[in-house]
Amino acid sequence: MTQNLILQNIAKHISLDENEISYFLSILKEKKYPKKSIVLKEGEICRTINFVQSGTLRAFYRNPAGKESTIMFAIADWWITDMSCFINQQPAMLNIETIEESHIYHLQKEDLDDLYLKIPKFERFFRIIMQNAYIREQLRVIQNLSLTAEERYYIFLEKYPQVEKQVTQKQIASYLGITPEFLSMIRANKNKQALS
Description:
- This protein is of the alpha+beta class.
- It has helices at 4-11, 18-27, 83-88, 109-118, 121-146, 149-159, 161-164, 169-176, 180-195; strands at 29-33, 38-40, 48-54, 56-62, 68-75, 79-80, 95-98, 102-108.
- It is built from nine helices and eight strands.
- Strand 4 and strand 5 form a beta hairpin.
- The protein has a four-stranded antiparallel β-sheet. A four-stranded antiparallel β-sheet has the order 2-7-4-5.
- The radius of gyration is 18 Å and the shape is globular.
């Protein structure tokens, strides 16, 4: 049963009976994407919140000059969307693309609203998901203001060791707000320290 992972994810915060599980699974849209596919394009109305069954995705912002800044990554067992635009059903500010072949469950905004009415405990589940996302992003902003790039890189490795193995150095540098060359220097220093 391919839905086991999403049900395990939900079971971390709420318990569902068989009817609730059946209803929840019935409203999900399942899709497999090849590597380098656009799941959400900036300017499109953000209609879904997405659960990663397998694969790796990244959300990024592209400024008017074309420079990309990675905002977040998502690997198996994570949720991803352009949250502000999803909640308000507005054109996306972010692009979401697959870094590798990915299997995703999409949950439409109108289905989520119905889910809250039919199974109110899902409000608790998504409140926890959104609180955790907010906390993570607030800490990231504070770290960007108060820590060196090297310190931020070590925190990234500690918090997301599985992500580091699946994304490129350029994408990590973009997430940290530094150049790939500067990240290479940080990694070289780390390797020297490990050898000494």
